[in-house]
């Protein structure tokens, strides 16, 4: 399944300047060093993969990028602004959205509400207008509903739009998670193992969605994924982490040929 | 096939976002309102208004307020009685100290006072959760009890903290007859229920539920859990405060701080657990259940020809409540409202099982 060849649009997609850069990021939980002096950058419109064995610090890296974790050292530069740490609401406001490795959906809410919640920052009307649901508040709800319905159509989940997400099968929940992130119309989309636990067919669908998002909206994508085939097919460049350190960085072919990467995946002792 | 959505195709999102998108619901609600406002005042007995409908409506309002906090936003509160007391005594002070203030304005301002205090006592929720938050709100309850029993200014120097509401009238109409009281309270409750439904379906309601379901994810999409929690405390306390003022002025007439003690807080919590957490209908069902159950239990021994002392009856009542709460927590945490929804779903498919 080589989606790269199957979809020439991906090749034509123009990769731009650096939009996000992390420099010398270190993060520890007590004695556990999750990340040690990690630096890499992400270019606008590209698909950037982060790979590495279990516990390598991949999820922690995403959590640093969108401000859920504060690194003890290092800097994050996003669209020209340098910070020692992100804050979740700053990241959200600046157009960084994400999905979660272990689903973090709003289980008691319908698919529609989950996605509408993703658009919270785009909504403006105050509590009094909402309480009366008149004028601008109602117009706004309808307008956002339209946008969300477009995403629902795109992800092919029309039939469950009013179902509480807690009742959906796992594969669909993963799609809703992606949908909620897309609803925010992000510039950068962080995807933490979007295909984990899926069968081949579901994986293919998910790959297609990710590529379409990247192609059609030009969304920059940072992707964590264990399936090497998927990584090789989707990504422009790959960062490899092992025990919290960066051990390789380059195109899929370069990374695949790198001895340190081969050793890390084969479990060679350092 | 009584309850069918089929054939009611929604051609615009606006029509799907109506208050009640399904025709049968709309007809039912309108019919219910026509009955409640137009027919009930003529057929109800004084006992029905005074002992059942007025307390049911006011407690529904308080339960609705509590449900916003507990059911929608996932924060616990054992201080609801205290916030009702704030509403009641605020209304009393406004009525006594500010002459010629419109009764509706008094109730809304009383709600506003409760909002402020509620948001203040909501601050601990930003740091603590679950059991610890429950204890913090319980402390609020005891503090408020103490405040109204001991600080004489609030009760206009009445010795035991016992105070009476002034004669009630609004726009020149006296609110003295049971029918007038019923209609007054009904109007309040309808408006507040509408507001609650609008809020719950809007951006702020989604922020509450998102904070309840997964606060980290909420933060990542730009919802501020702090703002969501505090607004839930504020809105909830507003509802509860207005309910407290209504309870004091319209239902009790004269009262002491004991009317709003911790038992009231628990009673309201039971209502929303039995009725259904995170459901507007559930708040009403729970309140109806808890208001009507003791009246029914009182009658049962008579029907069975058994003599029971009032003390025994109240013990039985407590036991039945306890059992029901355990039942709902284990079997159907979403309460009577969920059972109603299941029934409706069945009806929608009836007579075809699939
Ligand atoms: N909140 C936390 N508290 C304590 N330790 C943590 C926390 N989050 C991550 N860690 C630790 O940091 C290290 C890196 O974890 P992380 O989840 O980033 O790895 P990962 O590469 O995403 O692994 P996986 O492929 O299993 O998802 C692990 O040793 C983990 O135990
Ligand atoms: Mg991970």
Attribute tags:
A: 270 residues, alpha/beta, Rossmann fold, 2 domains, six-stranded mixed β-sheet, four-stranded antiparallel β-sheet, 12 helices, 10 strands, 41% helix, disordered N terminus, B: 354 residues, mainly alpha, two-stranded antiparallel sheet, binds adenosine-5'-triphosphate, binds magnesium ion
Please describe the biggest sheet of chain A, giving its number of strands, its sense, and whether it closes into a barrel.
6 strands, mixed
Task: Identify the overall geometry of chain B.
Answer: globular
Question: Approximately what portion of the residues of chain A adopt beta-strand conformation?
Answer: 15-25%
CATH superfamily of the largest domain in chain A: P-loop containing nucleotide triphosphate hydrolases
Number of domains of chain A: 2
Largest interface: A-B, 39 and 30 residues
Describe the strand arrangement of the main beta sheet of chain A, using strand numbers.
6-7-8-3-9-10
| Secondary structural class of chain B | mainly alpha
Counted by DSSP, the helix tally of chain B is 14
Low-confidence stretches of chain A: 1-12
Strand content of chain B: under 5%
Explain what this protein looks like in three dimensions:
- The complex is a heterodimer of chains A (about 270) and B (about 350).
- With about 270 residues, chain A is of the alpha/beta class.
- Chain A folds into 2 domains: about 1-95 and about 185-270, 3-Layer(aba) Sandwich (Rossmann fold); about 105-185, no CATH class.
- Helix content of chain A is about 40%, strand content about 25%.
- Chain A has 12 helices and 10 strands.
- Chain A has helices at about 5, 10, 60-65, 90-95, 110-120, 125-130, 135-155, 170-185, 200-215, 230-235, 250-255, 260-265, and strands spanning about 20-30, 30-45, 45-50, 75-80, 80-85, 95-100, 190, 220-225, 235-240, 245-250.
- In chain A, the strands form 2 sheets. A 6-stranded mixed beta sheet of chain A has the order 6-7-8-3-9-10, sandwiched between helices. In chain A, strands 2-1-4-5 form a 4-stranded antiparallel beta sheet, covered by helices on one side.
- With about 350 residues, chain B is mainly α.
- Chain B has a domain at about 50-260.
- Chain B is built from 14 helices and 4 strands.
- The longest helix of chain B has 28 residues, at about 225-250.
- The radius of gyration of chain B is 21 Å and the shape is globular.
- The interface of A and B includes residues 104 and 132 of A.
- Adenosine-5'-triphosphate binds next to strand 2 and helix 3 of chain A.
């Amino acid at each position: 399944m080589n989606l790269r060849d199957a979809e020439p649009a991906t090749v034509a997609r123009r990769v731009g300047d650096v939009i996000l850069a992390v420099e010398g990021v270190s993060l520890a939980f007590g004695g556990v060093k999750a990340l040690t002096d990690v630096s890499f950058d992400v270019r606008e419109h590209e698909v950037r993969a982060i790979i590495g064995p279990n516990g390598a610090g991949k999820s922690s890296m995403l959590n640093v990028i969108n401000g859920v974790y504060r690194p003890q050292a290092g800097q994050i530069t996003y669209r020209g602004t340098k910070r020692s740490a992100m804050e979740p609401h700053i990241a959200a406001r600046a157009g960084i959205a994400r999905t979660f490795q272990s689903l973090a959906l709003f289980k008691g809410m319908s698919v529609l509400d989950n996605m509408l919640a993703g658009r919270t920052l785009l909504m403006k009307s105050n509590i009094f207008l909402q309480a009366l649901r008149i004028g601008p508040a109602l117009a706004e709800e309808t307008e956002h509903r339209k946008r969300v319905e477009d995403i629902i159509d795109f992800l092919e989940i029309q039939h469950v739009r009013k179902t509480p997400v807690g009742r959906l099968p796992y594969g669909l929940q993963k799609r809703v998670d992606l949908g909620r992130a897309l609803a925010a119309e992000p510039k950068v989309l962080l995807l933490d193992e979007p295909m984990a636990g899926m069968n081949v067919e579901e994986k293919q669908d998910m790959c297609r969605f990710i590529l379409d998002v990247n192609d059609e909206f030009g969304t920059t994508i940072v992707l964590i994924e264990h399936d090497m085939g998927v990584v090789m097919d989707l990504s422009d460049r790959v960062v490899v982490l092992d025990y919290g350190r960066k051990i390789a960085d380059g195109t899929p072919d370069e990374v695949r040929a790198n001895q340190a990467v081969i050793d890390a995946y084969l479990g060679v002792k350092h | 096939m009584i309850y069918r959505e089929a054939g009611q195709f929604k051609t615009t999102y606006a029509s799907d976002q109506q208050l009640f998108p399904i025709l049968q619901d709309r007809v039912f609600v309108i019919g219910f309102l026509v009955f409640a406002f137009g027919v009930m005042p003529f057929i109800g007995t004084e006992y029905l208004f005074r002992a059942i409908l007025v307390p049911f409506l006011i407690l529904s309002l308080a339960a609705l307020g509590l449900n916003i906090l507990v059911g929608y936003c996932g924060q616990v509160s054992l201080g609801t009685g205290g916030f009702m007391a704030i509403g009641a005594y605020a209304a009393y002070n406004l009525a006594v100290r500010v002459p010629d203030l419109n009764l509706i304005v008094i109730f809304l301002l009383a709600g506003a006072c409760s909002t402020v205090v509620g948001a203040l006592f909501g601050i601990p929720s930003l740091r603590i959760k679950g059991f610890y938050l429950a204890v913090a709100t319980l402390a609020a309850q005891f503090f408020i009890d103490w405040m109204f029993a001991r600080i004489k200014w609030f009760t206009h120097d009445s010795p035991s903290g016992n105070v009476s509401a002034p004669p009630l009238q609004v726009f020149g109409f006296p609110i003295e007859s049971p029918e007038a009281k019923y209609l007054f309270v009904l109007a309040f409750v309808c408006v507040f229920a509408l507001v609650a439904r609008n809020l719950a379906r809007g951006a702020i309601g989604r922020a509450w539920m998102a904070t309840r379901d997964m606060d980290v994810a909420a933060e990542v999409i730009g919802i501020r859990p702090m703002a969501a929690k505090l607004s839930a405390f504020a809105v909830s306390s507003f509802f509860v405060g207005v309910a407290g003022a209504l309870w004091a002025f319209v239902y009790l007439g004269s009262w002491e701080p004991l009317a709003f003690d911790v038992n009231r807080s628990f009673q309201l919590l039971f209502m929303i657990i039995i009725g259904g957490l995170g459901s507007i209908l559930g708040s009403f069902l729970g309140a109806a259940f808890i208001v009507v159950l003791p009246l029914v239990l009182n009658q049962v021994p008579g029907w069975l020809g058994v003599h029971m002392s009032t003390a025994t009856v109240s013990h039985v009542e407590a036991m039945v409540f306890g059992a029901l709460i355990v039942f709902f927590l284990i079997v159907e945490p979403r309460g009577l409202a969920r059972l109603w929804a299941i029934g409706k779903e069945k009806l929608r498919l009836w007579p075809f099982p699939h």
